[in-house]
Fold this protein.
Amino acid sequence: MKPSVQRDLEHFRSNPWCSSYLESPNLVIETPAGRNEKPGHGDALFARTLNTPDTIAAYLTFHKEPQRRGSLVPQIYAFLTLRPGLNGWPGICHGGIVVTIIDEVTGQLIDVNQRNGAIPHPMLVTAYLNTEFIRPVAVPSTILVKARITNLEGRKCHVETTIESQQGRVLAVGKGLFVAMKEKL
């Protein structure tokens, strides 16, 4: 297990609410791919800018292990610990960051399925992401993000993503369409 995974896993296991999710059998627990900066500054937002003790202090994704290569992983979960560097208003996460978190975790769901061979397209991009803000996302806090594929057809992948509090309250919902890039533009 990579040091960053181990550090974040220990952080979330120290929280009884998070630990109850992480103890399920047959889980794949990962540091999201976006937490590792790519050449040319790819993924710099989550790898560097939002990877500080004052922004997103810890971040893990997890999902049930697929039954076989090529089978769809329909849903992933993510825990994120949010700190005051994300405030829009005192004690409330900036709305743009809320949308960014939804987009990022949705992207991780697509990435998991690309690596598993269930989504054959090498690059999907956000066509739209409609977000409903239901309640403020408190800062500091640890949140649970759930991303679920609702329809996968051809080059199109529809995903619904929720952000939930430790009390189980839905704070925000994102509904998005992600489309595979055509070979030639």
